[in-house]
Design brief:
7 helices; globular; Alpha-Beta Plaits
């Protein structure tokens, strides 16, 4: 629980605040950009909510925060806001919320599908989410983009009888995973789900292309709202920037509308714009 006495100095006065336990994971800035902003290595409240919608967004951020660093003096009903998660993105795709400290606050996603639902990376295994997953038909597969974001995948797999998917080169993070990907060739699990190995951020990093529209990118690729472009972060590349650049090049000719990352901004663009953005990013990375 956030401590008002330990709040960061940049917070503007008002009901919401961020304390010094913040790990700068970006969750709150993605969910409530009108309220939260980035300082040096942490977030802060740059503007108190000005409407009911902004207040609800700030409470979503409070609930999703992996370390409980957001506090409020507001008396809103957090339980009613909890019902917003999983939060619809488009069609059968949802953002889970309830980010885990173990994955440094990475986003996770839920996909409803008639042949069995998918979870992309892992949130906290909180009672509300487990109940909602049950109501939505359970989880057949848990796709793990890479070793950093497995969080509570094992416990969720046990709860739902799910089959976890991870690459051999990141298998140490989930050694008893049921499906192990090898090599760099794309693999189609079913007509709607295609796994594309993208080594670089980690040796076994992979992305998931769903229905030719949604690309779940882990820590490989995201949208920078500040720079208004697709981006990758060299300082967060734990394995090989050269391999990550080559992996990015392989995605240039893929067709997708959405980039749905673990960290960083989500974005939806027409495929021709997405392809142009991807090519520009590869040029910047190569330089």
């Amino acid at each position: 629980m956030a401590d008002f006495k330990n709040k960061v100095s940049e917070n503007v006065d008002g009901d919401f605040f961020v304390d010094r336990t913040c790990i700068d994971c970006d969750t709150c800035r993605q969910l409530a950009p009108a309220v939260f902003a980035e300082a040096s290595m942490y977030s802060f409240v740059h503007s108190q909510p000005q409407s009911a919608d902004e207040t609800r967004a700030a409470i979503r951020a409070l609930l999703a925060c992996p370390v409980g660093s957001i506090g409020t003096l507001h008396h809103a009903d957090a339980k009613s806001v909890m019902s917003d998660f999983p939060m619809p993105i488009e069609g059968p795709v949802y953002y889970c919320g309830f980010a885990s400290r173990d994955s440094y606050g990475a986003a996770s996603y839920f996909i409803r599908h008639p042949e069995g639902n998918w979870l992309v990376d892992s949130p906290r295994s909180v009672t509300h989410l487990v109940r909602r997953f049950e109501q939505m038909g359970g989880i057949r597969y848990i796709f793990l983009t890479h070793r950093d974001d497995v969080a509570e995948a094992a416990s969720l797999a046990r709860r739902f009888g799910s089959r976890r998917i991870i690459h051999q080169d990141d298998l140490s993070a989930q050694p008893d995973a049921e499906i192990v990907i090898e090599g760099t060739a794309p693999i189609r699990i079913s007509p709607d789900f295609r796994i594309i190995p993208t080594p670089g951020h980690s040796p076994g990093h992979c992305v998931l292309l769903f229905a030719g529209r949604f690309l779940f990118t882990g820590d490989h690729l995201w949208w920078s709202a500040q720079r208004r472009m697709l981006d990758a972060y060299r300082l967060a590349c734990w394995h090989s920037w050269e391999e990550q650049t080559a992996s990015m090049q392989r995605l240039v000719d893929e067709t997708f509308f959405w980039v749905l990352p673990g960290h960083g901004g989500r974005v939806c663009l027409p495929p021709h714009e997405m392809r142009r953005e991807m090519a520009a990013l590869v040029r910047r990375m190569s330089a």
